[in-house]
Amino acid sequence: MGMSINIYPFPYEGQSINCYVRRLAEVNGYPSVGLFKEIWWKSRNISAHELCDDDIAEVIGYRRGHLQKLRLLSSARGSWEHHYGAMLIPSHHLHKHEMYCPACFKEKGYMLAKWSIGWLPLCLEHQCPLIPVDYEAEKLMPPGVEASRTTRDRRQYDLFGYDEVCKMQAVLEARLAKEERGNFSGPSLISCIDTAMMLSTGAPSIEAVKSRRRRYPMRYFPFWGEQSLQFVECLSQELKAA
């Protein structure tokens, strides 16, 4: 189709792949992200979670320094494991659907990869649960531009009574920051959370967790909404034991 990449924006630290791909398509004049994906990866419907570092590197002229700031690149095309710094995070720890904090996005103008991690359901900065991206309602406007909020329930939960969830997530985020830099010894955060998933669901194995309920996309995080908050609240004993 004759469209090329001439502008290579440098990613923000911890930026999500979805967000960076949208930015690449926008600044290079592609009429849609779907067309961008079709030209470069042969599929309009390919998920950002399927993309590996080689997929992105090819598009941005093998500027490997750009990749160091991105998180949750697949370990190989279509793999169920994703690089988060020095960590490997399996897809059953991630939401299939893109989540975000509208207040953070308005202030910063970009999306964070960690918002895809199911056991980080809150924005601690704004003391609110993350919500699914609603492109029609939010329009993903840049900072300072108001967007429509009229089309869907925004899934804002009352956080009264969730003080323990906030405290637990602060512990998880601190541990994540250490492990992504390779600065933690002992049982991994991933193994601790896998154990908690099995206990919470009564499943005999992680494979059973992945296929537990068909109301959730299989091989992705098995909890949603307030269930995610309750799961995090119950993690305290598991992590103390580790």
Automatic annotation (TrEMBL):
Residues 9-130 form the TniQ domain. It holds the Pfam family TniQ. It comes from the Bacteria. This is TniQ domain-containing protein. It comes from Aestuariirhabdus litorea.
